[in-house]
Amino acid sequence: MRRKPRRRYCRKTDKKWIGLIILLLGIAIVAVITLPYKAWIVIVGCMMIYIGYKLFMS
Description:
Layout: H1 12-34, H2 37-57
């Protein structure tokens, strides 16, 4: 009897997303250690303006 082919739970696209998340998490950890508090306020403010602009224009 033949066995059914097993499904791969971790597909290629899933690996890309997981890799991207791990990369971003690593960058964030390094940035938290090195950047001062005021720099984080500026970065978060710019991100919020960008995200708001993208939501408004879509």
